[in-house]
Amino acid sequence: MFILNSIAHASKRSDVQIPRISIFVNETAEAIKAEKRRKDAREDRINYLKHVIGNLDRRGNATTPGTSEKTDG
Asked: Alpha-carbon distance 47 to 35, whole Å?
């Protein structure tokens, strides 16, 4: 809000140039996008690990869906 207020006040005065904030806005947008990508990647890793753990039997062996956990007769 401070930036917007300073622009509003500067636009009323002819002797003050309006600061260019497009660089600031672009950097902020890029930072937000990067944070979202990191968050999405973290969630993808968690979901993958949940999937892998869900496919383990009691002995830690990988199972395929639809098969029983009991492998020895």
From this structure: 18
pLDDT average, residue stretch 10-27: 65
Domain definitions of the chain by residue range: 20-58
Give the residue among 9, 33, 8, 7 at the shortest CA–CA distance from 20: 7
pTM, full prediction: 0.49
SS3 state of residue 7 = helix
| 72 pLDDT above the threshold of 60 | no
